[in-house]
Specification:
Blueprint: E1 3-8, H1 13-24, E2 31-38, E3 41-48, H2 51-58, E4 67-73, E5 88-89, E6 95-103, H3 106-115, H4 127-137, H5 144-158, E7 161-169, E8 176-181, E9 186-189, E10 194-197, E11 209-212, E12 218-222, E13 225-229, E14 235-236, E15 241-242, H6 258-264, H7 266-278, H8 289-293, E16 297-302, H9 304-321, E17 325-329, H10 330-333, E18 344-350, H11 356-367, E19 371-376, H12 382-386, E20 389-392, H13 405-424, H14 430-452, H15 454-464, E21 469-474, H16 479-493, E22 496-501, E23 518-522, H17 529-540, E24 545-551, H18 552-556, E25 564-568, H19 576-594
Parallel strand pairs: 16-17, 16-18, 18-19, 19-20, 21-22, 21-23, 23-24, 24-25
Antiparallel strand pairs: 1-4, 1-10, 2-3, 2-4, 5-6, 6-7, 7-8, 8-12, 9-10, 9-11, 11-15, 12-13, 13-14
Bound molecules: 5-amino-5-deoxy-1-O-phosphono-D-mannitol (M6R).
5-amino-5-deoxy-1-O-phosphono-D-mannitol (M6R) binds at residues 303-306, 350-352, 355, 358, 401-403, 487, 491, 608-609.
């Protein structure tokens, strides 16, 4: 994971680097650091913790350096300590490197380098890169820039894994070098300064001119020029793209947490997403109806919350279109043999569009010749650039690590895609399509009603927030919602939370039930209401406190033993996941708040998981 940023220009680099790091903090916040070149020497400052801690440390620094590289870390190799923080230096403290990614052969390389006399200061995989470069540059006494480019190309052939690097060398005080292999790195180009960054958010305030690097490119930034070289040291042509500068500065709108703001935005974000689909529904996913008609299999792929959206959509596509559908974890898809299927539509779901496992799965699906569609929330993201076509959800920036509004927008998009497949293969007629779209269009209002009922959900959180273990039960389309609710609760409260298909509990999980265990039963008045009642009674009989997430109709038929109820609008069973999860997001938020957790940036996590 990790975020990297580099600046070279006429101004003091520190502010640019800190601003860039703050925008990239979603990629990791275990530690932060920067390296500047000043008077032909490297000045290194780093700090464990968030970028704010680095900023505090820098408040006493007096510098006029106009070139620097910086890093915000999500620890992979080695604990979050000062030593393991980036940038890393070579033995002579002449080269500094920041790195996003993983070097898979670092142990072998480290052993060889130690045998050659290099002294390592950290437990990171990154440090081998800087020592390797030191080794390559050790006998260089002239043509520093040219030799640095050649050396980077040499080490690119020695390193295995995925990485993006920024490099500065005190002997070339007017350049920053960047290179990448299967990890994002782009250049922001301006009149009198240039940037490297993991994504555009780090420099979009200053420039909308962007150059995307290909794998194995080596880029050389000076304050007033940019050059790209291929793996054989030949200069290569590049394209500058103008990106949408209109990215909103994300603010909390006076609320305590981004997560709460994002939960409350859902009536608008779901509506905006639906409207964007309805503008041109037949072509919203970039594949025309004739092509969709021939689809014989659908593959839905994502990680975490996006995977849960895929699980819900599997029910929809099979119900509305009768097309065999698989939901796959991206991290599993890449590492197993896939039976080749004809006419497969592969759909990649990702809020960030940068999740490394999803990128890898997408590349594999493309190699298999599948039609690929992405559902993403971030323009110009890696996944959106690789997929044949991307539908962008209309959520605006999602800042909280726990995904909320992106999930409901993904669900709305996938619901529309399911209808479209059903329409194309004639499983649905025009009347069915109109009815389903109308029902979907009513969802934002029902989300608003849940948000208006936040106080009662907070009341239930107040009753249970001291518990350390929670169970969520659902069936059919709401089984994935049980999984998602448990994920939400565990990632922001750190408590144990498990989601189960309600029919499965008697096959094992019921053993977990103790006196007063809170069990959330997702039970609208639908085809599985009675089954959900059975499961609820089975756990009540063993001492559990059941909290029902039900609709108005279900509430009327509820048994007296279930006292705690979150009641949502009546809605067709197939659309109920979009409502149920909003209620459960609010519950998770309030439990975390009552426990004083760091809600927007929970421990050990990062918003965008850019390492496999
Ligand atoms: O950006 P993506 O949608 O690809 O991210 C996938 C997961 O990392 C993400 O959903 C993660 O599980 C969230 N923290 C869940 O709230």
């Amino acid at each position: 994971m990790c975020g990297i940023v580099g600046y070279i220009g006429n101004n003091n680099s520190v502010d640019y680097l800190l601003n860039g790091l703050k925008s990239l903090e979603y990629r990791g916040y275990d530690s932060a650091g920067l390296a500047l070149i000043e008077n032909n020497r490297i000045n290194l400052i780093k700090s464990v913790g968030k970028v704010q801690a680095l900023e505090d440390k820098l408040s006493n620094l007096s510098t006029s350096s106009t070139i620097g590289i910086a890093h915000t870390r999500w620890a992979t190799h080695g604990k979050p300590t000062d030593e393991n923080s980036h940038p890393h230096l070579d033995c002579k403290k002449e080269i500094a490197i920041v790195h996003n990614g993983i070097i898979e052969n670092y142990l072998t390389l480290k052993k060889e380098l130690i045998e050659k006399g290099h002294i390592f200061k950290s437990e990171t995989d990154t440090e081998v890169i800087v020592h390797l470069l030191e080794e390559e540059l050790s006998n260089i006494t002239n043509n520093y820039e040219e030799n640095l480019i050649k050396s980077v190309n040499i080490i690119n052939k020695k390193l295995k894994g995925s990485y993006a690097l920024n490099i500065i060398w005190s002997k070339t005080p007017d350049i920053i070098i960047g290179t990448r292999i299967k990890a994002p790195l782009l250049i922001g180009a301006y009149d009198d300064c240039n940037f490297f960054a993991s994504d555009i958010s780090a420099f979009i305030k200053y420039t909308d001119q962007v150059i995307y690097l290909d794998d194995y490119d080596v880029a050389v930034l000076k304050k007033d020029s940019i050059k790209l070289y291929d793996a054989n040291n030949n200069e290569k042509y590049f394209n500058k793209i103008t990106v949408d500068k209109n990215v909103n500065e994300a603010t909390k709108n006076g609320l305590e947490h981004f997560m709460l703001k994002e939960i409350r935005e859902q009536p608008h974000t779901v509506m905006a997403t639906i409207e964007s689909i309805l503008e041109n529904i037949d072509n919203a996913f970039g594949i025309n109806l004739m092509d969709i008609k021939s689809v014989k299999n659908v593959l839905l792929i994502g990680c975490g919350t996006a995977y849960h959206a895929a699980l819900v959509a599997k029910y929809w596509i099979e119900e509305f279109a009768g097309v065999p559908t698989q939901a796959e974890l991206a991290s599993e898809y890449k590492y197993r043999k896939i039976a080749q299927t004809d006419e497969t539509l592969a759909v990649f779901i990702s809020q960030s569009g940068e999740t490394a496992d999803t990128v890898a799965a997408l590349e594999k699906a493309k190699l298999s010749g599948f039609k690929t569609v992405a559902i993403c929330n971030v323009y110009s993201s890696t996944i959106s650039r690789i997929a044949d076509y991307t539908f962008f959800t209309k959520c605006g920036p999602e800042i909280s690590v726990a995904s909320t509004k992106a999930f409901t927008a993904q669900l709305a998009s996938l619901f529309a895609l399911s209808i479209l497949i059903g329409k194309a293969n004639k499983s649905l007629d025009d009347k069915d399509v109109i009815k389903l779209i109308r029902e979907l269009s009513l969802i934002p209002k029902s989300i608003e009603n849940i948000i208006n009922d936040e106080k009662s959900i907070e009341g239930i959180a107040k009753k249970y927030y001291t518990e350390k273990s929670y169970i969520f039960l659902g069936r059919n389309v709401n089984y994935p919602i049980a999984l998602e609710a448990a994920l939400k609760l565990k990632e922001i409260t750190y408590f144990q939370a498990e989601g189960f298909a309600a029919g499965e509990i008697k096959h094992g999980p019921i053993a977990m039930i103790e006196e007063n265990t809170p069990v959330f039963s997702i039970m609208g008045y639908d085809s599985v209401y009675d089954k959900m009642l059975n499961a609820s009674q089975e756990v009540i009989a063993r001492g559990a406190n059941v909290i029902a997430i039900t609709d108005k109709e279900g509430n009327q038929h509820m048994i007296a033993d279930i006292v705690d109820r979150i009641v949502i609008d009546n809605t067709p069973q197939y659309l109920s996941p979009i409502l149920n999860i909003v209620a459960l997001q609010l519950f998770a938020y309030h439990v975390a708040k009552l426990n004083g957790r760091e809600i927007d940036q929970p421990r050990n996590l990062a918003k965008s998981v850019t390492v496999e």
